[in-house]
Amino acid sequence: MIQLLLIGAGHAHAFVLEAFAKQPESDLAITVVSDSPLAAYSGSVPAWLAGECTLRETQIDVAALCQRAGARFIDSPAEALDTSARRVTLANGDVLHFDVASLNVGSTLVRPEQHGQHLPHLLAMRPLSSLHHRWQALRDNVEQLPPGASQRVVSVGGGAAGCETLMSVMAQLRHQRPDIHWQGYLLSASPKLLPEAGRLPRWLIQRALAKAGIKVHARVRGEALVDGGILASDGKRIEADIVLWATGAVGHRWLCDTRLPLDAQGFVQVENTLAVVGQPNLFAAGDCSAFDPPLPNAGVYAVRMGSSLAGNLRAACRGETLSAWQPPKRVLALIGTGGGRAIASRGAMGFSGRWVWQWKKRIDARFIARFNPPFED
Ligand SMILES: Cc1cc2nc3c(=O)[nH]c(=O)nc-3n(C[C@H](O)[C@H](O)[C@H](O)COP(=O)(O)OP(=O)(O)OC[C@H]3O[C@@H](n4cnc5c(N)ncnc54)[C@H](O)[C@@H]3O)c2cc1C
């Protein structure tokens, strides 16, 4: 039996499992390891944060997907990878050998340093898989606030995730505690919000933030949490009670202890076939992979890599030639702005409205339903 090991239950691996469920290989044993049998689907995160759907409605049932693909699921994350011995060690102590393996473990972020006794409440937006625990802890804290209190919520990071989650979080906090005076701020290290988007979508996001009563401080890099606020790179202290940390994505720390070729952010360098550079039996996809030229850290790329990855994993197991994956030139980003509205952005094009939010919700619901089909007798 050829051993195929899928490390992480990210978006790309969902497509791999779907492909093997549709077309099984009799001489292949597939194992999936992850830190949870339910995987977060990034597209639905803003709707969930805004309280428009339940957590469960945003998750893919990976264990059930494994069952359909005839794969074994192990609920324990990988902690170490020995490329020459083709061996992975899990947090539960299991050691798994593989012939071909693929990494789709997502990304994390560098948390701010913290100095002081009266720090603001930190909500780190990555890793996504454990965001629900941190979000619940914040909501529990908010429940304890005295009536009529004033709260400054500051988001650090001017990318799509930072803008979108701040608006969703503000909408939900206002709903949870209408008696509190909520103020929202966004710090962006770069001069422009959504630096990768065109001028029109950037203007739309600025307008949406202004409508939500959120003040933007551009060219301000949040460095550390200090008593009562955030220390910025220019030495100023910005007052904050709650801090959403949504700075750029980086690779998981344990990858640094492997001999994998990593880029400056700690992502695994891959060829255009998604095979790891210099490792023809090892693949990486989604946020944890460093493609050349670099791609934004967005779920849509992990999704687009999925079927090519499935084809190349099948080919690698059979010893056949791999095919190149072609990244899309432009992708459509649908960014929730709270209050049942969203912005669509593709290259220079941009539009917004309630219908964009409804459109986004339909796309996301279809995606989830694809991997969580209703139970059949
Ligand atoms: C708040 C927020 C909102 C976002 N909204 C959007 C959006 O609307 N649209 C969009 O396109 N992108 C969005 N993004 C970006 C998006 O979340 C990521 O780009 C996307 O999730 C990457 O997909 P992935 O398949 O690479 O990894 P992930 O979806 O992160 O999946 C990784 C999987 O690996 C598992 N795992 C992690 N470590 C290990 C380990 N050591 N061993 C085994 N398993 C492990 C995790 O549990 C998880 O199941 C958002 C990001 C954030 C932070």
Describe the structure concisely:
The chain is 28% helix and 29% strand. The protein is of the alpha/beta class and 377 residues long.
Query: Under the CATH scheme, which architecture of the largest domain would be assigned?
Result: 3-Layer(bba) Sandwich
- Which structural category do the helix and sheet elements fall into? alpha/beta
Give the CA-CA distance, first to last residue: 31 Å
Mean pLDDT: 93
- Name the CATH homologous superfamily of the largest domain: FAD/NAD(P)-binding domain
With strands numbered from the N-terminus, the spatial order across the biggest sheet is: 5-2-1-9-21-20
Number of helical stretches of at least 4 residues: 8
Task: Please bin the fraction of helical residues.
Answer: 25-40%
| Stretches with pLDDT under 50, minimum 5 residues | none
Rg result: 21 Å
| Total domain units | 2
What key attributes describe this structure?
single chain, 377 residues, alpha/beta, FAD/NAD(P)-binding domain, 2 domains, 25 strands, 28% helix, binds flavin-adenine dinucleotide
Plain-language structure description:
- The protein is of the alpha/beta class and 377 residues long.
- It folds into two domains: 2-108 and 250-328, FAD/NAD(P)-binding domain, CATH 3.50.50; 113-247, FAD/NAD(P)-binding domain, CATH 3.50.50.
- It contains eight helices and 25 strands.
- The protein has helices at residues 11-22, 45-49, 62-69, 131-143, 160-176, 199-211, 299-318, 354-371, and strands at residues 2-7, 28-34, 38-40, 59-61, 72-75, 78-82, 87-90, 95-97, 100-103, 113-115, 121-124, 150-156, 181-188, 214-218, 222-226, 229-232, 237-239, 242-245, 268-269, 275-276, 279-284, 289-290, 333-338, 341-346, 349-353.
- The strands form seven sheets. A six-stranded mixed beta sheet has the order 5-2-1-9-21-20, covered by helices on one side. A five-stranded parallel beta sheet has the order 11-18-12-13-14. Strands 10-15-16-17 form a four-stranded mixed beta sheet, with no helix packed on it.
- A hairpin with a 2-residue loop joins strand 23 (333-338) and strand 24.
- The longest helix is centred in the C-terminal third of the chain and has 20 residues, at 299-318.
- The protein starts with a strand and ends in a 6-residue tail after the last helix.
- The structure holds flavin-adenine dinucleotide (FAD).
